[in-house]
Amino acid sequence: MATFFRRLAKAAPIAFGCQTKSAPRLRFGALAAISGGISAYYFYSSPNMGYLDELNENSPPQAALNPEKWIEFKLQEKVQASHNTQLFRFSFDPDLKLGLHVASCLITRAPNGQNAEGKTKYVIRPYTPISDPDAKGYFDLLIKVYPEGKMSQHFASLKPGDVVEVKGPIEKFRYSPNMKKHIGMIAGGSGITPMLQVIDAILKNPDDNTQVSLIYANLTPDDILLKKKLDTLSASNPNLKVFYTVDNPTKGWLGGQGFISKQMVVKGLPGPSDDTLVLVCGPPGMMNHISGDKKDRAQGELRGILKELGYTEDMVYKF
């Protein structure tokens, strides 16, 4: 397990999270903030039944997450994935699934001093796991550690055996197989994480014929998150196409250069259609450029490149 985990870190040098802070020189500003309505799977039993001595073998497993309660998850292992990114694996009961839908994230919290009444204050941040939602007994987070990031610094200080408090899930976008013929994706920075959830769900389902096209923007080639994994997936799955663009290309770079443009979208994504859905996730500057940003938890008005190219609000989802 440890060897596999380290290989994953080397194969996926990523920044991570539903919400991140501004990075120096990143034209599009802060990395993606992800929000949505709270949704979860509940496992009920009648109060008149008391304690159950036996469970039906066909009963679905209880989820490890709870949307109403903070639960401690133990850090099993962490490795350095890049110069400023760490990969964390948290463990729980191996008979349980985490309880995530595709695509959804979880909320984490850490103590951050006390208020005037002497009660503990917390810093709270959402993150999107990159592990399979159906995996039992563990979940993986990849987190970019910012010098002044209260939550990311807390994660960086954790040692194996330490715990983090988690609540959730927060549902962002409910994916169902073959819901659209073609899904386009535009991601910037750690905005790749919810896209990966959807991509993995499509590619692991042999009955899902959805075509996926991804445009992924970063500052430099070294900042491309999950590149080796994305390259492997696209090479082995003809229904996944990936195009990278960077602000500051290195010598020999063969991908796109600069901001995501209209030409990139026209060439790389499916055109406006009832059978098309475009998912967008990235820093606020990128969101405004591509689709218009969200308004709190609402999708907000469609603006930017996608509107100019003829897409409508029901063809676009903003994480």
From TrEMBL:
Its cofactor is FAD. Pfam families: FAD_binding_6, NAD_binding_1. It is an enzyme of class 1 (oxidoreductase). Keywords: FAD, Flavoprotein, Mitochondrion, NAD, Oxidoreductase. InterPro entries: CBR-like, Cbr1-like_FAD-bd_dom, FAD-bd_FR_type, Flavoprot_Pyr_Nucl_cyt_Rdtase, FNR_nucleotide-bd, OxRdtase_FAD/NAD-bd, Riboflavin_synthase-like_b-brl. It catalyses: 2 Fe(III)-[cytochrome b5] + NADH = 2 Fe(II)-[cytochrome b5] + NAD(+) + H(+). One of its GO terms (molecular function) is cytochrome-b5 reductase activity, acting on NADH. FAD binds at R125, P126, Y127, L142, K144, K150, M151, S152, T193. Its EC number is 1.6.2.2. Residues 68-176 form the FAD-binding FR-type domain. PANTHER family: NADH-CYTOCHROME B5 REDUCTASE, NADH-CYTOCHROME B5 REDUCTASE 2. Belongs to the flavoprotein pyridine nucleotide cytochrome reductase family. This is NADH-cytochrome b5 reductase. It comes from Salvia divinorum (Maria pastora).
